[in-house]
Amino acid sequence: MSSTKDSHDKSYEPEVNDYVKWTRETGNNHIETDEGWVYFKGDIIPPKKGFSDKPRYITIETGVRDKPAEQLKDSPLHKKVHTLLLCYEQCWDELQFIKRRESPTIQHYSQYDERAGNWN
Fold it and tell me: Where are the domains of the chain?
C-alpha cells in the first residue's frame, strides 16, 4: 500500500482507518454524500464450485454515540453504538480518500517492522 493516495485515483482501494467521502446518486437524480472512517474491509473470498460469489465490501462509520444506560447493564463491554454504511467493491471508485489515521494497535503483522523501524 502506498503511503500517499490521490483522492481522484480510480484504482484507490480503501483500507481500515482511512477517512473517506462517498458521493453517489441514490435515485431520482438525488445526490447523497456520506463520510467517515473505514471500519471494516472484507477479505477476497476465492470462488468455490457450487457456491455463489461473495461480493467484497467495506463499512464506513458515519456516526458513534453512547449506548443508553439501560442497555449498558446487560452488555457493559460495548459502550457505543456505531452507525455503519455498507459500500460494495464496485462502488469503491466513487470514494474520495481524505486522510488516514494510525491506530496505536498493530493491526497486521506487516506493520511491526514499520513501527519498530526495522526497515533496511
Answer: 18-116
